[in-house]
Amino acid sequence: MNISVSCIAQLSCLFANPTTQPTTAQPTPPPSANPTSFPTTAQPTSNIVVNGNFEAGLDPWYMNRWDSAYMLELSDTDRGKSALNKDRIENWNGVQQTLSLEDIQKGDYHLSCYGKIQSGTTSDYLQLTLRITTAEYGATYPGWSTRTLINANDWTLVEGTVSTNVPGTITEVTVYAEAETVSTNYWVDDVEVVLISAQPTSNPTPSTANPTPNPTTKSPTSFPTTPTPTTKSPTAFPTTSEVCFSMYLYILSSNIICSS
């Protein structure tokens, strides 16, 4: 039996490794956009004045004048305990308190109290003043409440907003009351100093970019995905190797039959 070399070579091709088909790369989705973070507005905090209603006595209050303890007196009124400012020498002589620096931030504060005249006149202007002392510039007066007309019949609310955004390092902050007319003896009660808006602790780097609108959660952009191609099986045709192998089997079977 003679089998051609070419047929044997073709037969060996049947055992060759199949060719690996390339895979289609899937598109990478774009990263999600995180919403821009904005600082929140500071909410009003608690009163940083100690014993603002004088129910615990006069401590830690004192008179805004050296050696003037006689000008300040604790009185019983229809509001409970109140501070009586009397026998003043200057119009700025009034009850005052040095606030704790631990409670002070640079920002806007709401100042308020109630005032009522005891004697000396029937009406007068009363205000709360904030005095800030810095290491670089000494005592400064950044603001005071609205000058409000008080009377001898009713308690009148005196209030206003003052900023502590002053240059320099703050070493002392004091709030005190003062009436316009020296001869006016008046009561003060329910003194409050409340932070309503804090200045940011660090200045952000200026940006030339357009301001970012109010933040909303941004969903990632949706892109159509490339469909995975389906592999279509081609029509099967016999290869040269298969033909040679078939012929080999045919010749082999023919020789066997002939031999028998």
Write the layout of secondary structure elements.
Blueprint lengths: L4 H8 L49 E2 L8 E6 L2 E6 L9 E5 L7 E13 L3 E12 L3 E7 L3 E4 L4 E8 L6 E10 L5 E14 L41 H20 L1
Antiparallel strand pairs: 1-4, 2-3, 3-11, 4-10, 5-9, 5-11, 6-7, 6-8, 6-10
How would you describe the overall organization of this protein?
This protein is mainly beta. It has a domain at 62-198: Galactose-binding domain-like (Jelly Rolls, Sandwich). It is 11% helix and 33% strand. The protein contains 2 helices and 11 strands; from the N terminus they run H-E-E-E-E-E-E-E-E-E-E-E-H. The protein has helices at 5-12, 240-259; strands at 62-63, 72-77, 80-85, 95-99, 107-119, 123-134, 138-144, 148-151, 156-163, 170-179, 185-198. The strands form 2 sheets. Strands 1, 4, 6, 7, 8 and 10 form a 6-stranded antiparallel sheet that branches. Strands 2-3-11-5-9 form a 5-stranded antiparallel sheet, with no helix packed on it. Helix 1 (5-12) packs across helix 2. It starts with a helix and ends with a helix. Residues 1-20 and 35-42 have low confidence and may be disordered.
